[in-house]
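Morning, I've got a small favour to ask if you have a moment. I've dropped the whole record in just underneath, so have a look.
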Amino acid sequence: MANPKSICVYCGSSDKGRASHREATLALGETLARNMVRLVYGGGHVGLMGAVADAALNAGGEVTGIIPQFLKDMEVGHGGCTELIVTETMHDRKQQMAALSDAFVILPGGLGTLDETFEILTWRQLGLHDKPIILVNIDDYWSPLLALINNQISENYVRAEHQRLYEVVDNVADVLPVISQLLVDD
């Protein structure tokens, strides 16, 4: 199995979601650190974003946060990151997150998480990268999105083979084994 060196995690900036989402987020951060996989994420100290970073840092992991200046100015930047990269724009942020990562893991989140998810899926569809993308479907959180994609396939707006752009797992314990296997298969 090929272990990734760096994984980008997309997740919410809110603390108002289910406790199980937060628990899974903490478990993922700890797992990345224990396996010496650098966490790359949006650089915030709030919500699930802050939780995954704190969990990785508390377990001795390396964390690279990438945040645009305007968000840092709102005092949401995580001051404890191993490295905090400040960008000019959201687009620069997403480009750097993608460039620094071997794979992408998507946890529950809001509109920003959806934006990042669709962009990284589209970039893979267009051949701009060929890195694994894993949706973690905790408590069926992503099931409505998966149903929408199936509807898009049924309506002939998305090709059925584009379901291979991503993998779906139900818990964070499966994330690293699936990514490692996908990296070997490539």
About this structure: The longest strand covers residues 63-68.
